[in-house]
Amino acid sequence: xxxxxxxxxxxxxxxxxxxLAHGVWPANALRERGxxxxxxxxxxxxxxxxxxxxxxxxxxxDARARAAGIRRSFEDAFSAIGAxxxxxxxxxxFLSAEVARWMVAEGLGIDVASGGELALALAAGIDxxxxxxxxxxxxxxxxxxxxxxxxxxxxxxxxxxxxxxxxAAGRHGAVQRVRLRTNTxxxxxxxEYLATARExxxxxxxxxxxxxxxxxxxxxxxxxxxxxxxxxxxQIFEVSGFIxxxxxxxxxxxxxxxxxxxxxxxxxxxxxxxxxSVDRVAPIEDMAxxxxxxxxxxxxxxxxxxxxxxxxxxxxxxGPAGVTLYTVGTIKDVDVATDAGISLRRYVSVDGGMxxxxxxxxxxxxxxxxxxxxxxxxxxxxxxxxxKHCESGDxxxxxxxxxxxxxxGDTLAVAATGAYCWSLASNYNYLARPAVVAVRDGAARAIVxxxxxxxxxxxxxxxxxxxxxxxxxxxxxxxDSPGKGAIR
Length: 488
Prior knowledge:
The chain has 13 helices and 21 strands. Helices cover about 30% and strands about 25% of the residues.
């Protein structure tokens, strides 16, 4: 089959438009004998019937296995060079009480980036000593709350924060452990908005300023300096950026050791995942070994002891473990003029969109879609999965091939939506945010309930006591409770 001229060069027509690309879908996703997609033994249509559409679905066993696998890979690699490893789950990817508890159960700490994320982690019963607080503009109240709760570390992002955290620690009679976020200038191979260590951006302090800031931290008796922190970006496949960052960080780390202890080096996260069949992700074990080798080599070069290491994976744990289920509403064929003549693009519109996945609009992100309620032997056709919002940029999947008989009422599954979809979700056009359901061993349970129109109207103080319109009664039925129990 020839590719549609409208398709991007990387997207080849599939031999089977029903097949699930290896590494893109959750570990426990498969098609049952009748052709329907199941997630950890629960059919897609059962999930929508119980919890409503759209719906976020998370494979609990997959998420936990990825967390444990990353921890073990880094522990094994760095123990070989004499270093301990602390792994923090980056909660910004997706944070709920259940997920926080999964991560801690698998031996990880929790990395939070706001007072709200901190409150969630604490409410979930996470020991504050296992929490790290990030942010380039932490409020006075957020800092005070973190210090008062006894968080394990606060990552300082500026000179101002050094003084603010020291003052808060003094008020609480505490000695607060801190890391200093540094801007290494390493240009990671990723989207412009995902690169977080370039010189002209908001995070961290330049390497040239580190010595002065650390001297000030050490002068303040209410602060305990753990070490440097770096995060070069997100959705990174190549190890070269991390290795260059290690080279630059260890040079400064060695200099800082001349004036006092620097027990730790935090390398951040940003490990990439496969969103499409052409994304090539190196095994995490290989990345861990290469980073350990780089740290060992640089420590030896500078004549210093290998520091303990911390990392902060998020997307690489939750991203592949999640899918979003939608219901197809309308189908529209559009003729587009190309150099080869007129080509057809089929728009498949679903009942969600940029309110539940803004990444395609924000980053131009690519995703993979499959019909979930059935299989089809119809010839593949190029589609663009669109949302229902009043924006031409409201695209869920920019380019993919689906069976040509995709029709209204079909259930559509979009893979690798476990990270940065629910956490970036909005109520644009007054759409209620979907529920999040965890699946495991043939059972499903809601871990975040669906919002309702009642929720949305309840925030408008001019509508106090107003009843929702009858048009949303189905949404209300799915959203007013956290689920009727487990599907089995």
